[in-house]
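Worked example 3 (structure in, sequence out).
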């Protein structure tokens, strides 16, 4: 008997670039191989999920999970503008058929941070033309794979650009304050505390130190000193472009398959307040979630992605409480955050179902992962008991993988991978999640 009741998806998530390997036509691959890169290591063959997907999906299904959220890599499907690779479409068709073979519901993401390099050379996520390019790609995929698709997330963490912009501003201020004290260790600590406030793997110190040299190399690689990759610091203009791309893609896919359930995913912190921080906290939530509501209120679902909380006082976001347990990502261990975010999202969009598309923890201690999952999913159950329409819960992530600029050191996975042999070893947390 499911902890969540009948018809509920319990699954795990991955992203193509983080697990597949050899995504050679993408903007991230290009950035990873620049001389002046912010990535601590390249993705390489990652965990070879491109070739080992059946083994991984079978491990997921054998543990008792019934859903798998994964992304289709645009740079594989359309490696050159207007040229679609039928071999790669066939690959993702095989992945979808594999899910069906093992009784697993696929939840597909069309863009999980990475884009084709050619798109960035044409202006990327700073150009209106990207809206059309993205919609055309999404339409093509549904034309080819639609018979096996039921749930589609257009864009992963559409609000990440604004969060990156905010964290860069905070980093600059903290680094300046540390420099005034002339204590380099303070500067390092400032960087770590800021990185722990955004739900993606960033190497902020490396980014800031290399900015000038990167601008020069970007001209050689992308033809511009400031390439607009998806995970760039967005202004309101670029933020609006992203949400328009979501709307255009949704429309294009619905024209092909009207019954497809389509939504977007957003990175949501549990925003809490201490005395004097009310106005700043309200502003943060409006930027992180509230201002998207007019654009997504008619979607079939909203994907909620949460890892921790942010607490605001009168001077802004507060440091993690002294003595608090931290994850490898410098997030506070706070699984209760998920329930709080679900309730707030539902309060503001009561008629839109929720899928928890990401929730998890980077830790080398799997017993803490089990505890995190237990407390987080207890909160999901309470929300369901109170009548909130939640369709599923996807843990991040199925496999230990490539955590963007931080490389392979962050272990979020339910399955560990020895990258020298690519041998998979399921952790206790996989069977625990499956038992739910």
């Amino acid at each position: 008997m499911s902890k969540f009741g009948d018809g509920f998806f319990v699954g795990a998530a991955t992203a193509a670039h983080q697990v597949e390997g050899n995504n050679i036509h993408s903007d991230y691959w290009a950035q990873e191989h620049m001389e002046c890169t912010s990535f601590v290591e390249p993705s390489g063959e990652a965990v070879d999920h491109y070739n080992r997907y059946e083994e991984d999906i079978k491990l997921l299904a054998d543990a008792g999970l019934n859903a798998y959220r994964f992304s289709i890599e645009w740079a594989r499907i359309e490696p050159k503008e207007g040229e679609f690779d039928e071999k790669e479409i066939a690959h993702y068709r095989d992945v979808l058929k594999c899910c069906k073979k093992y009784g697993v519901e696929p939840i597909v993401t069309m863009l999980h941070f990475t884009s084709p390099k050619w798109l960035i050379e044409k202006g990327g996520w700073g150009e209106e033309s990207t809206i059309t390019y993205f919609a055309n790609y999404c339409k093509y995929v549904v034309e080819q794979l639609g018979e096996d698709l039921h749930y589609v997330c257009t864009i992963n963490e559409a609000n990440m650009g604004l969060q990156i912009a905010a964290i860069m501003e905070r980093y600059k201020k903290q680094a300046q304050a540390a420099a005034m004290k002339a204590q380099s260790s303070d500067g390092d600590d400032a960087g770590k505390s800021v990185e722990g406030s955004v739900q993606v793997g960033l190497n902020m110190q490396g980014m800031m130190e290399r900015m000038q040299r990167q601008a020069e190399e970007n001209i050689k690689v992308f033809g511009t000193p400031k390439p607009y990759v998806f995970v760039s610091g967005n202004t309101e203009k670029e933020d609006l472009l992203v949400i328009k791309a979501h709307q255009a893609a949704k429309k294009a896919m619905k024209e092909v398959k009207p019954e497809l359930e389509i939504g977007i995913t957003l990175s949501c912190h549990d925003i809490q307040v201490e005395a004097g921080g009310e106005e700043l906290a309200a502003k943060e939530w409006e930027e992180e979630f509230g201002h998207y509501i007019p654009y997504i209120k008619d979607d079939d679902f909203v994907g909620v992605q949460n890892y921790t909380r942010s607490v605001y006082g009168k001077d802004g976001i507060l440091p993690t409480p002294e003595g608090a347990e931290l994850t490898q990502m410098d997030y506070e261990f706070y699984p209760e955050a998920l329930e709080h975010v679900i309730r707030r999202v539902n309060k503001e969009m009561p008629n839109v179902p929720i899928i928890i598309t990401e929730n998890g923890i980077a830790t080398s201690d799997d017993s803490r992962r089990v505890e995190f999952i237990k407390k987080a999913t207890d909160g999901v159950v309470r929300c369901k008991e109170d009548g909130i329409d939640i369709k599923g819960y996807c843990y991040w992530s199925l496999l230990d993988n490539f955590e963007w600029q931080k490389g392979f050191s962050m272990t979020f996975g339910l399955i560990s991978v020895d990258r020298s042999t690519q041998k998979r070893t399921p952790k206790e947390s996989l069977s625990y999640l499956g038992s739910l």
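Notes: The chain is about 45% helix and 15% strand. The CA atoms of residues 124 and 341 lie 31 Å apart.
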